[in-house]
Amino acid sequence: MRTSPRRPLILKRRRLPLPVQNAPSETSEEEAKRSPAQPEPTQAQASQEVAESSSCKFPAGIKIINHPTMPNTQVVAIPNNADIQSIITALTAKGKESGSSGPNKFILISSGGPSSHPSHPQPQAQASNDSKRTEVMAETLGPKPAAKGVPVPKPPGALPRQRQEGCAGGEAAGCMLDSSLTNIQWLGKMSSDGLGPCSIKQELEEKENCHLEQNRVKIEEPSVASTSWPDSVSERPPYSYMAMIQFAINSTERKRMTLKDIYTWIEDHFPYFKHIAKPGWKNSIRHNLSLHDMFVRETSANGKVSFWTIHPSANRYLTLDQVFKPLDPGSPQSPEHLESQQKRPNPELRRNVTIKTELPLGARRKMKPLLPRVSSYLVPIQFPVNQSLVLQPSVKVPLPLAASLMSSELARHSKRVRIAPKVLLSNEGIAPLPATEPLKEEKPLLGEGLLPLLPIQSIKEEEIQPGEDMPHLERPIKVESPPLEEWPSPCASLKEGLSNSWEDSSCSPTPKPKKSYCGLKSPTRRVSEMLVTKRREKREVSRSRRKQHLQPPCVDEPELFFSEDSSTFRPAMALLAESSEPAPQLSCPQEEGGPFKTPIKETLPVSSTPSKSVLSRDPESWRLTPPAKVGGLDFSPVRTPQGAFGPLPDSLGLMELNTTPLKSLPLFDSPRELLNSEPFDLASDPFRSSPPPHLEGPKPGSPEPQAPSLSANRSLTEGLVLDTMNDSLSKILLDISFPGLEEDPLGPDNINWSQFIPELR
DNA sequence: CTATGTAAACAAC
DNA sequence: GTTGTTTACATAG
Q1: Cβ of A663 less than 7 A from strand C
Q2: How far apart are CA A12 and CA A720, in angstroms?
Q3: What is the model's pTM?
Q4: Polar residues: which segments have biased composition (predicted)?
């Protein structure tokens, strides 16, 4: 996305790895759960089907299987190289032929290049330079589990979890693994530099969680590390500080990290910061932490340690692995190229770089920006009645590109295209909670935690008085963090003020008032709150630009999108479900000490600099995507056919438009949504347990719908859904539905297509 | 105008 | 000295 030096990439939608993903970031716990989720049995069927279907006119390499759960739906695995248009044409024809009776809906997924090795599906364009690296990477990866083709981070998981589990303690254990693993891999590629030195981390303090996590990381890393990517060192990661912080935090089980650990994590994973960057980068990290509302500071019970967490509603659970995608040697064209630009050419780098300075651009790319375009995201598209509209171009495009192109083009050409509003998913609900750790002593419930549960409330909270209301919540929550309120909710306003809009618009009437979260908090917390508040007060007053509220879109940040992969998230879902505890936990694992959250960063009006305060409103905002028109496109709200969302909505008002600011074509407000959705979908499984019971408990309305997502996303019916984010998509799934048919509500799509389609792996 | 990055002033520990 | 917050400014899109 952003090329400018200053702007690092932003991850937009993240693609999920097809293969089983375990939730990358999620906690270990899920593991158990998640695994079950996948329908294995179906595979066989699928495979058979595949054989059948594949036959058609479709180009070789394409596999078609019936969607395990969706009627009249087939999944088409397309090699990256494939000519999408032709495929679409064929599918379209097929769909027509079939009519209502036959498969009329197709989900296109990139199977990675036909040729590509398993491990890296996409050949994309690695930078020319990189070719070597690519190779290297492959090698590297090879050893690792991940190697499997999909970018996915973890293979089915396994190891990590174990470890995690091992770490009883907690946070560290869980999620980290996954993410870390992947991350690690990535790292390895990048450079040995950072990694090599595991020792560093050891140092890490005692922070409870941190330690564990890190350690693990270290461990893993080493293995990976070795490889090449010399460049990596010199190169500045294509990620923004915000993204890196998220990666770091999400790499931990608890989804929280101390500042120091964040520094360490970044240094370890991005050698550039360790070796080349100016010392001021740490200042920038701090600045980002303070600036963005999504980052919430929690204080350990004892008050000694401050942990930075990501506001659940805002957390996409991005992890480095998710972002990173090995480049395939093969296709130069890959979208990535496009992205490559993003990297920043920093002048700084140059200056600083003593070491490596000049890497060819290509080289830089190594780190892939998040956006892999094609592969993973699911983009349901409904063909307009006249299909013609769809891809005009005859040109072949690498899948990834194609996907992106398609979307864009479609959008353009076909007026009809709609972008599905983001579905909302409540993150929270979805969100992977940090592991369900045993609660630590207290659980401070974070507002966050609550949020998910109570999105609506949150909004109201303001109204409500602080202390008193806890009602809904089962447990008291502490929220230091910015209260939900702050979080942007999906508001109507389209984009306009992206940031602001959230807040303002629909959500809370008063946009700004940041209130204290008090309401949420339990008495106990109050104390903490108080503390927090103090600051807030200050802040509020002062705030200027200050915190940027979560933008719904979150946009930049790396967002995860899960399409099929949803499986990945499952874990999280599972967790949720499992977690005995209610929501709160979800969001935040508390520490023993019951962290206090920092007061919300409120949003105050501010001055120039956006401060966190500004935006926020509900977290939910993230979730929903309101329909809107964008650039001519309509975004109608996608409705979820089912109730998947059911819950969600109401309060959230899916309908609301969110303004997602996606400038371009927003599909979903935030990838998160997608993510969320996915999980749900995925969730269909057992785990899914849709909204964890607990959640609901608190709020009757349980707006938070956790579940829904896919369906929502799918809103096939709606029309085309394009992912604006093109870039980001690593995979794009296209659902093509033929007019006559209704859409499918889609069940949970969470399927690992890889199971059915080997290539995907 | 927005998002991001960078630098720096300050405050609280 | 570290951690956090906030300003201010610069830059790219």
Answers
A1: no
A2: 19
A3: 0.41
A4: 605-614
